[in-house]
């Protein structure tokens, strides 16, 4: 398995020096940049041995995906095209569509309508991303972050609903633990699972010790499906230089 960290692109050389395999950055942070600023970032990444192989935080926070004020298809398509072209230039191979606030549907709006709206938005993203060789995944989020798609199983159901070859599954250990979700849902996802996130569910901090959380069950399920993909640490830290190497050491052991 490849091990990475969700962090700003400015930290890419730090991760390279620590021994990580890639960096996971935010899509909306690069899609909105002026051309000159983006070219500076691209030059930074081009000079590094590791790349931004994964990008999350896909949509802008002010773009609604559900409800009566949802963005139109042309708006989503234009954004998705720009995002894919820029991300591909940074070496991105996977998009993570989380965006709990953007997909949260308002009170009084039917969940089925919201699911249809969100599914269509993801389908548009998949179509544009496929042109640049980028796979799209849907991230399940715990109920405190969104009222739509709260488990790996629900995400898998959505993927089946979309039925697009470029939309795949991801699993986030932190959200699974917050929702008391069975790790067997990873086994049900099987070959559809192409990406994962992890954090100590006690405070959403960097994993450091094997006994601090039920990491064994998570990695046990991944091993059962022969998972060979990426694991990104998506966690809070006040000291990246201290916490990241400890997490890398632990995750390498768990991956073995």
UniProtKB/TrEMBL annotation:
Pfam families: AP_endonuc_2. It comes from the Bacteria. This is Xylose isomerase-like TIM barrel domain-containing protein. Residues 14-253 form the Xylose isomerase-like TIM barrel domain.
């Amino acid at each position: 398995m490849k091990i990475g960290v969700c962090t700003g692109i400015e930290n890419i050389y730090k991760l390279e020096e620590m021994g990580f395999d890639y960096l996971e950055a935010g899509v909306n942070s690069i899609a909105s940049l002026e051309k000159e600023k983006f070219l500076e970032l691209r030059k930074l990444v081009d000079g590094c041995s590791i790349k931004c192989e994964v990008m999350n935080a896909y949509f802008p926070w002010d773009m609604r995906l559900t409800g009566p004020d949802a963005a139109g298809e042309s708006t989503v398509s234009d954004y998705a095209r720009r995002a894919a072209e820029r991300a591909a230039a940074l070496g991105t191979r996977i998009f993570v569509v989380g965006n709990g606030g953007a997909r949260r549907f308002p009170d009084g709006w039917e969940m089925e309508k919201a699911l249809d709206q969100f599914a269509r938005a993801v389908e548009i993203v998949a179509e544009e991303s496929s042109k640049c060789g980028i796979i799209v995944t849907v991230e399940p989020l715990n109920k405190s972050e969104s009222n739509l798609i709260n488990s790996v199983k629900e995400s898998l159901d959505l993927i089946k609903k979309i039925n697009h070859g470029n939309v795949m599954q991801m699993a986030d250990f932190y959200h699974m633990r917050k929702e008391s979700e069975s790790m067997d849902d990873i086994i049900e996802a099987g070959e559809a699972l192409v990406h994962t996130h992890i954090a100590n569910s006690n405070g959403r901090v960097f994993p450091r010790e094997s006994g601090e959380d039920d990491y064994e069950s998570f990695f046990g399920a991944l091993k059962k499906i022969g998972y060979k993909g990426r694991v990104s640490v998506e966690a809070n830290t006040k000291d990246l230089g201290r916490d990241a190497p400890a997490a890398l050491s632990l995750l390498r052991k768990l991956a073995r």
